[in-house]
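Blinded run. Sample ID left blank on purpose so nobody reads anything into the name before looking at the predicted structure. Input follows.
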Amino acid sequence: MLNQFSRTELLLGKEAMEKLQNSRVAVFGVGGVGGFTVEALVRSGVGAIDLIDDDKVCLTNLNRQLIATRSTVGKYKVDVMADRIKDINPNCQVNTYKCFYLPENKDDFDFSQYDYIVDAVDTVTAKIQLVMEAKEKNVPIISSMGAGNKLNPAMFEVADIYKTSVCPLAKVMRRELKKRGVKKLKVVYSKEKPIRPIEDMSISCRTHCICPPGAAHKCTERRYIPGSTAFVPSVVGLIIGSEIIKDIAGVK
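Blinded prediction complete.
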């Protein structure tokens, strides 16, 4: 019967669509990368999506984040994304968590219930903990490496963490995961050398932070403020989404 996923079914087949419908994916980080990953998942027919992010939409998110509009500034990202999911597919089950994932709250999540995990967070501590939990529960996970300070979306590729190069974040992850005995990890990364952001305090969040009132983590707390564009994080997010859809559906 013709439905909103019929065009996808023409490529993947009925059995694959049923697998997607019965799958549950957890997306940690619903920003520039994670937002577009969620978009790909819900439009592909994934039946249940968990959204984990404690951040609110900020004015500076409008240049790259799918859910960021003038009307959503100041709202929790998970709430805005949940509304968008329901507007696309009312039958999709959505669970939201307004929290910043850390080792301290890892027990709040039952990783064994997920069919796939998306690491779209930007702190090494959280990334490592997500990988360790996924490996312990034998759940597939894909991690986004550095997408900030880059301009060429065509250079991003899917690889095992131990086959990456150039990317500073990937280098740190390789070292830390090796210490912990992790043998492999699917990641999306780029060999493009990061661009050094312009040092102009008049346009820096460092001295002019405009995060919404009540935001748990403000820009002034960051070690550095990366530059970003509309066309790099979105591509990374869609690549991640495509990998998940193909893996769950069992297609190459």
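Unblinding after everyone has recorded impressions. The helical segments are 6-12, 14-21, 32-43, 77-88, 124-137, 168-179, 233-249.
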